[in-house]
């Protein structure tokens, strides 16, 4: 998608049309498919090795799912482009053979197991659906669906990002979308971004030409909020945003791991420029912290440290 957008740009008038080649690299997040993300660290699991290659000039651009990119980048690296966002909602995928009986989370029998690797999803769904149980599930999309559909598999359903399902041609497996307030999605979910070196003016010019303004405003506001909250894959922070007629509406929430505590707030302000959007996100995070999110996050961090220590002993 990113390469196609770059290749579709009109050729420069004063130089040859640039060409693009792709390479694929496995990251720590890709290689470790057994340990819960909650215990593995931050978003750099998916970016660190790639950024080394970028800074060493082995590659000139990195294409990421923006939700996996840390909110603070290494020195010398910047987000050059943010492409138009797919629908960022999470979706419910029911086990094959049960689609006619179960259409929603409410339809699942008490005690049903729902698979997801996201503490954000689990925290919010425990709050809204206390009758359900949740089990960590890792692997690529095909692996997760195979685990779901296995006759002896424990899961009745999975919660997955709609954008990933659609991009990989599996949209037909979606049983129902789970929009807010049922489930606030991850920061920047559904958006692809290109990371470049901050001194690469040629790459920056190309990236600016394919950046989608509305998506950029929304995503950078969401990232600013998460940055102030010091969150990542291991923190249950959810968001929702819209941008219409120069007005940004940004909602974010922080939920305790057991779903018993939940802090949510919305800001609606003009934000036609990136700096304004980021300021909205920062202000929203500060409101959340002052409203009790700070206490929730402190408790989550202590719990993670304890569980990480216990895991290292085994």
Automatic annotation (TrEMBL):
Cofactor: dipyrromethane
Top EC class of this enzyme: transferase
Span of domain Porphobilinogen deaminase N-terminal: 19-203
The keyword Transferase appears for this protein: yes
A cellular component term, taken from the record's GO annotations: cytoplasm
This protein's pathway: Porphyrin-containing compound metabolism; protoporphyrin-IX biosynthesis; coproporphyrinogen-III from 5-aminolevulinate: step 2/4
Domain annotation Porphobilinogen deaminase C-terminal: ranges: 217-288
Protein's UniProt keywords contain Protein transport: no
SUPFAM superfamilies registered for this protein in UniProt: Periplasmic binding protein-like II, Porphobilinogen deaminase (hydroxymethylbilane synthase), C-terminal domain
Cited Pfam families: Porphobil_deam, Porphobil_deamC
InterPro entries tied to this protein: HemC, Porphobilin_deaminase_N, Porphobilinogen_deaminase_C, Porphobilinogen_deaminase_C_sf
GO BP: heme biosynthetic process
EC number: 2.5.1.61
GO molecular function (one): hydroxymethylbilane synthase activity
Keywords tagged on the record: Heme biosynthesis, Porphyrin biosynthesis, Transferase
Similarity comment text for this entry: Belongs to the HMBS family.
Name used for this protein in its record: Porphobilinogen deaminase
């Amino acid at each position: 998608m990113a390469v196609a957008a770059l290749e579709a740009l009109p050729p420069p008038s004063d130089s040859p049309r640039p060409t693009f080649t792709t390479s694929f690299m496995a990251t720590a997040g890709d290689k470790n498919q057994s340990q819960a993300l909650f215990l593995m660290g931050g978003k750099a699991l998916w970016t660190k090795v790639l950024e080394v290659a970028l800074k060493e000039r082995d590659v000139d651009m990195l294409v990421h799912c923006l939700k996996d990119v840390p909110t603070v980048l290494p020195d010398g690296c910047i987000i050059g482009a943010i492409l138009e966002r797919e629908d960022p909602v999470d979706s419910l995928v029911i086990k094959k053979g049960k689609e006619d009986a179960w259409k929603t989370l409410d339809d699942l029998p008490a005690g049903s197991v729902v698979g997801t690797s996201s503490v954000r999803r689990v925290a919010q769904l425990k709050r809204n659906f206390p009758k359900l149980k949740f089990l960590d599930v890792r692997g690529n999309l095909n692996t997760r669906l195979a685990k779901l559909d296995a006759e002896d598999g424990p899961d009745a359903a999975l919660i997955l990002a709609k954008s990933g399902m659609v991009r990989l041609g599996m949209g037909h497996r979606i049983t129902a979308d789970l929009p807010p307030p049922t489930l606030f999605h991850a920061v920047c979910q559904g958006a692809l971004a290109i990371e470049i070196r901050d001194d690469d003016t040629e790459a920056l010019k190309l990236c600016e030409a394919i950046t989608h303004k509305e998506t950029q405003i929304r995503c950078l506001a969401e990232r600013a909020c998460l940055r102030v909250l010091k969150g990542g894959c291991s923190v249950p922070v959810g968001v929702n945003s819209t941008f219409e007629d120069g007005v940004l509406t940004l909602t974010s929430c922080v939920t305790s791991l057991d779903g018993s505590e939940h802090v949510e707030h919305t800001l609606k302000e003009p934000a036609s420029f990136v700096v304004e959007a980021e300021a909205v996100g920062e202000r929203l995070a500060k409101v959340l912290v002052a409203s009790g999110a700070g206490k929730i996050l402190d408790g989550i961090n202590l719990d993670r440290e304890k569980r990480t220590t216990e895991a290292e002993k085994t």
